[in-house]
Amino acid sequence: QNVVLFAFRGTGSSILSALQDLPSGLWPCTSKMEKHLQVISVMQWVISFLALGAACTALLIYIFCTDCWLIAAIYIAWLIFDWNTPKQGGRRSSWVRNWTVWTYFRDYFPVRLIKTHDLLPSRNYIFGYHPHGIFCFGGFCNFGTEATGFSKKFPGIKPSLATLAGNFRFPILRDYLMSGGICPVNRNSIDYLLSQNGTGNAVIIVVGGAAESLQCTPGLNSVTLKNRKGFVRLALRKGADLVPVYSFGENDAYKQVIFNEGTVWRSLQKKLQKMLGFAPCLFFGSSWGIVPFSKPITTIVGEPITVPKIEDASEEAVDLYHAMYIKSLQCLFDKYKTRFGLKESDILHIH
């Protein structure tokens, strides 16, 4: 995405930096200019996530039908050769993760990352991220970029945000996602990171997934977790510690039209969810419908739960650590909720 928008002069953020460095007299209001840059930064990510893959696929097909077909043929050959890279640790770029554009992205909401405990580089971790929201802005900003200083707060820990494997089938989009350390949320990819990539790895899984996104709405503190045990079973198999993560304000980025269970529209959403792997939501934001509301998102990384390595864990063991995880997440929410705009009477609904 930024490859398209911001890479004209050798740095992904050169245009934004150049605009910022222009004499202040050229702009009627510096703060207004900052806000415009923040909106652009967020919009480029939203539009890229929604349309970059399809647009680049269409462009590749078009080029293949022109006199420049050789360029498309070379890229397709490279794509075939590089097909398994996302499942083998990806190809992260510290340069892309540190683009200036992400600081504007961070400041739009703003997004904050709060550390509660140290993480040992000698261990591997599975972060359970809650809630999903519509676009998981907090998850992306904190773990797919260095805008909130993850590497400084957790030295020796390398985060990998897991997202839909289907995104890595699209040209250009796959490379853009990998550059941020984003990986497919499938067994092969996560197994590689937790067993063949040394230690100090943290795989961030948005546990509620598509089902949770269908329920998100401003002011609602609800997570889909009761029957989600796969990530616990994976942690036991790899001996990776579990870390609960909660983002206050993630659900406030958009308003959503929520269809009642049993209606035709809800049934359609669920069918498309099974077919596509994601849930099509009817949402709207502050302007043009697609710009999110500028609401604070604060991500709290909780205390790690030490998990033993058990290759073939029993259901009792899975249930035990799943219950421990739920209790830890609940305590994390209760401890910090009043600091970030919620009332003492607000509770976390776990479905």
TrEMBL record:
Subcellular location: Cytoplasm, Perinuclear region; Endoplasmic reticulum membrane; Lipid droplet
Pathway in which this enzyme or protein is active: Glycerolipid metabolism; triacylglycerol biosynthesis; Lipid metabolism
A GO BP entry: glycerol metabolic process
Keywords recorded for this protein, A-Z: Acyltransferase, Cytoplasm, Endoplasmic reticulum, Glycerol metabolism, Lipid biosynthesis, Lipid droplet, Lipid metabolism, Membrane, Transferase, Transmembrane, Transmembrane helix
Top-level taxon in the UniProt lineage: Eukaryota
UniProt keyword Disulfide bond present: no
The keyword Cytoplasm is annotated on this UniProt entry: yes
UniProt-recorded name of the protein: Acyltransferase
Gene giving rise to this polypeptide: DGAT2
